[in-house]
Amino acid sequence: MTDRSDVPADTTAEDDVFEQKAVRLAKRERLIEERTDAAGGAYPVAVPITTTIPALRAEYGELEADTRTGARAGVAGRIVFSRNTGKLCFASLQSGDGSRIQAMVSLAEVGEESLQRWKDLVDLGDHVFVSGEVISSRRGELSIMVSDWRIAAKALLPLPNLHSELSEESRVRSRYLDLIVRDQARQTVLSRAEVNASLRRTFSSHGFVEVETPMLQVQHGGASARPFVTRSNAFDTELYLRIAPELFLKRAVVGGLERVFEINRNFRNEGADSTHSPEFAMLEAYQAYSDYNGIADLTQELIQDAARAVAGSTSVTWADGTEFDLGGDWDRISMYPSLSAAAGREVTPATSIDELRALAAEAGIEEPPHATHGKLVEELWEHFVKTGLERPTFVMDFPVDTSPLVREHRTEPGVVEKWDLYVRGFELATGYSELVDPVIQRERFVEQAKLAARGDVEAMRIDEEFLRALEHGMPPSGGMGMGIDRLLMAITGLGIRETILFPLVK
């Protein structure tokens, strides 16, 4: 006989699950054998529900203890708690939103045979339909005194321990279990839906039109990022998963759709960490006859409206209990002056690359690959300034060579009218006064192509079709892009893998 104490805990758990599955499979077979019609058995096509658990709680949630209503209801839910006694069985049925109701299966109401079938066939995790009178138990718990019941879906695997926290890895790999057992997981999904609905309402109030642009593109562009590459058999050509919708949305503005936005997926073949995911939801918007100041005002409004939709105010509470205020008018600082103040020496667009390299070396900053003036300035800024930004802050006026799609600053040579919005120390959104001059845009693309030829996999290519569109005339415009996942991070305080329902995991 094997001494089970010598078996590793994980092996013991696997054996237990295997044994439970075997028992549940046998119950499934019995349900199939006992069915009286084609729709019955372990997985019937439908059950005759008359209402939902949330609706019952809304109507009868304030019943006094030991009250009978005389009202009858038929509901279904997943069993998350069960206790069987001699003549009375109790079960907690949970709906998709996490609300619960107690089912009471008694000998007096259902008879000996039905009570025994409940004890023999029903397990934790099963979906069960019950019908009967709505009552409040002696302990004041809203309940159904069951007169009829049936299995709605037999669970072949047991639920995890509802009193133990799932590890983060288990949560993201088995999100369906996370949604069953953890209120925060369900609430995050609901919050995300509320955020998206709020964004659409705010855009609609400003006359924006929601459009869709291609995710499969013959040429990647709109951002500096490494793309995913695939192939179309139908067209016999290499395609790219889009890294940004920007160049197509600008085509729409050229075509006369003066205020457009899109919420959709982007794909970037880069690293994954607490703020980056290879696949992520992105919002981009473009407004003709606006600029980066106007689009910053709109972005602040979008985020504050989203916070109100989720939290009821612009003061939000993160998952760890921290209070964070997204209200008021947000600070706007310039990149070069803020870097100069933090580094203790003046840094301007005229500062040589050798001086920037020396400053980076002094600060212990590793030089980025294919270093340019702009890349070094941004690395230095992140080192000296970024970590000190707690409140929402628009960081304005970036180096020209790192922003090939942005208009040059109207008064300051060597910088462009671009901002990045930082919240909680991470970049949440970016905005531009858009570059609409096709001649200058071609020059910028040529410079990017030179970087690509030197091995920079994030550099943009020359997009002739986009340039042709610009040559037909694009009005002066403001544009912005914001990660939906990161917006949820700012409102909830969660990591990026928690804000994505089904994140990519290795």
Give a short overview.
This protein has 506 residues and is of the alpha+beta class. 36% of the residues lie in helices and 25% in strands.
Features:
alpha+beta, 506 residues, magnesium, 5-stranded mixed beta barrel, 36% helix, aminoacyl-trna synthetase, EC 6.1.1.6, NA-bd_OB-fold, disordered N terminus, cytoplasm
User: Which oligomerization state do the chains in this entry correspond to?
Assistant: single chain
Let me know the average pLDDT. 92
Number of helices: 16
Largest sheet: 8 strands, mixed
Unreliably modeled segments:
1-10
Instruction: Tell me the overall shape.
Output: elongated
**Strand portion, in percent?**
25-35%
As a whole number of angstroms, the C-alpha radius of gyration is: 29 Å
Sheet with most strands: strand arrangement: 6-10-11-18-17-16-15-14
Please tally the β strands and state the result: 18
Helical content band: 25-40%
Structural class: alpha+beta
Cα distance, first to last residue? Answer: 39 Å
Organism: Microbacterium limosum
Keywords: Aminoacyl-tRNA synthetase, ATP-binding, Cytoplasm, Ligase, Magnesium, Metal-binding, Nucleotide-binding, Protein biosynthesis
Cofactor: Mg(2+)
Binding site for Mg(2+) 1: 420, 427
What's the structural blueprint in terms of helices and strands?
Elements: H1 9-34, H2 53-60, E1 67-84, E2 88-94, E3 100-106, H3 107-110, H4 112-121, E4 127-136, E5 142-153, H5 168-173, H6 175-181, H7 183-205, E6 209-210, E7 216-217, E8 229-232, E9 237-241, H8 246-254, E10 259-267, E11 279-288, H9 292-311, E12 315-317, E13 323-325, E14 331-334, H10 335-343, H11 353-362, H12 373-384, E15 393-399, E16 415-423, E17 426-433, H13 438-453, H14 464-471, E18 477-483, H15 484-492, H16 496-499
Parallel strand pairs: 3-5, 6-10, 14-15
Antiparallel strand pairs: 1-2, 1-4, 2-3, 4-5, 7-9, 8-9, 10-11, 11-18, 12-13, 15-16, 16-17, 17-18
